[in-house]
Design brief:
Elements: H1 6-19, E1 37-38, H2 49-66, H3 78-91, E2 98-101, H4 104-118, E3 124-128, H5 133-146, E4 149-153, H6 163-166, E5 174-180, H7 192-201, E6 205-209, H8 221-224, E7 228-231, E8 245-249, H9 251-254, H10 297-309, H11 311-333, E9 339-340, E10 352-356, H12 360-369, E11 372-373, E12 375-377, E13 381-385, H13 393-408
Parallel strand pairs: 1-11, 3-4, 3-5, 5-6, 6-7
Antiparallel strand pairs: 2-8, 7-8, 9-10, 10-13, 12-13
Helix pairs in contact: 1-13, 3-10, 4-5, 11-13, 12-13
The structure holds pyridoxal-5'-phosphate.
Length: 411
Amino acid sequence: MGTTSRSTAQNQAADLDAADSLRPHLDRFVTGGDVQAYLDGNSLGRPLRVTAERMRAFVDEAWGTRLIRGWDEGWFDLPLRLGDRIGAVTLGAAAGQTVVADSTTVLLYKLIRAALALRPGRTEIVVDRGNFPTDRYLAEGIAAETGATLRWIDPDHDAGVTVDLLAPVLGDQTALVLLSHVAYRSGHLLDAAAITDAAHAHGALVLLDVCHSAGALPIHLDKWGVDLAVGCTYKYLNGGPGSPAFAYVAHRHLADITQPIWGWMGAAASFEMGQGYVAAQGVRRLLSGTPPVVAMQPMIDMLDLIDEAGVDAIREKSTALTGFAIALVDERLTDHGVTVATPRDPDRRGGHVTIDHPESQHITARLWEQGIIPDFRRPSGIRLGLSPLSTSFTDVVTGVEAIVAELEKPA
Ligand SMILES: *Cc1c(COP(=O)(O)O)cnc(C)c1O
């Protein structure tokens, strides 16, 4: 057993919370019920208190009294305006390249197909086995549909997906490299700039899934030269369950990009309702049907808060939270057979920490009963998601100590 006792850890956490410049923001989130510590903000971010007022006003004022006129008064362009806001606040993307629509799954489908069409004659998609299931399944489905070949890579346990791992599978047949910026399970953070350079050296495109990084750490899509990106808004952007996703297309591809779901909302003149599809200019052409305007409302508040707090300060708190969690797990849980799956180098990890123990599924279920809420990830992982603006250092201690208590229970 390490030298840190429960009460020492609690004191350390209290000091860290007191020194945390982002701490006042904790009070801006809805709390209550039986929740003692929410450690899954990377799966579903908490709502902000102001969001309840925004939704009420939307029903009473926008939807309730502007009615169908709302489409002319802002809703029609909301996917683009909100996309620009996400791009500016979280993606390092200049205006005109980001749009909000669909789900991550559907936008990934559109962009993988778009990438193949941008690289005619090339037949290979590089994808890694540590990627989120929907990303892998889509790649399989598109391979079945188009005849493309998947080149699988296995992420390194310690380093994740690296340029060295990619080198053997890149070639003159590579159309696309599809990777997650932060791995959903291990928390590995890619060197997106280096990987983009490596792919470009072979003439391939990069599609970066930023579901687990947008809102949690600095992203510079324009600067890194990333071609395409997709992310979801219900994780670190707190858009609420099922809030729509966003897609980014670098300016240089906008004139040529095509996507396979041709609908009226992505057409050049939606309300002329004419014969024959002509794609809209710009990133609007990624849209298909009527945008989910209601579901776009909550994320507006979180984008304002992220903008106010600043992504660099958010990342600083995030690495402090994950570092604190790893140190505490080392001290309190190593002797119970728990191992850390997430990189110890703060520059190589995202905003969550995954620990492994054979009893993880059972422990997670017991924690949920107590209102302590991490999540379980197969085969044996407990994921501690430490959304920086809504998680305290004390929450980390509450979570880790609850795991200690479960493992110290007599069998
Ligand atoms: C959460 C997540 C998704 C989710 O896709 P949905 O279409 O919203 O269900 C996809 N990819 C990654 C990497 C994720 O973390």
